[in-house]
């Protein structure tokens, strides 16, 4: 069973999906492979873990949260999973290049494959694929559009310069 709800953000409405236990998707507005409500999905704002997801997203967008701690189920290949785990290690407010990400997953020559895996990330923002840029420092590729990527990076950079942050560690979801 798949449940869904929406969350309003400064980059537009985000579509959240869940299996009733874990967050399985976060659809960005204008994403080329955007998650869409499918036949049989059930709209349920109270399904787990939506309450906690909304709380943490709100804290993130308020500039008070730098690291998410949520039950996630991102379905993908073993290689995609490895890339997505590494994305979660990129510090808030920082960027790395696709080449650096490829090196971190153990194959410096796999920057193209890493880019494809990055683009298939089903839970952007929470799995922060927006923090990966071209080796020349330019913004390249973002399913939600380069404007959204720039807005997220600018937002994090501004928050780092002027804010204090909370990290939700060992968050439990009822």
Say which CATH homologous superfamily of the largest domain is assigned.
Winged helix-like DNA-binding domain superfamily/Winged helix DNA-binding domain
Strands of the widest sheet, in order across it, are 3-2-1-4
What order do the SSEs take from the amino end to the carboxyl end, as H and E?
EEEEHEHEHHEHE
Radius of gyration: 16 Å
Verbal overview:
It is a single chain. The chain has helices at 50-61, 78-87, 98-104, 111-119, 146-162, and strands at residues 3-9, 12-18, 23-27, 42-43, 65-67, 96-97, 132-133, 166-167. It is globular, with a radius of gyration of 16 Å. The strands form 3 sheets. The protein has a 4-stranded mixed beta sheet with strand order 3-2-1-4, covered by helices on one side. It has a two-stranded parallel ribbon with strand order 5-8. Strands 6-7 form a two-stranded parallel ribbon. It contains 5 helices and 8 strands. Helix 3 crosses helix 4. It is α/β, with parallel strands linked by helices.
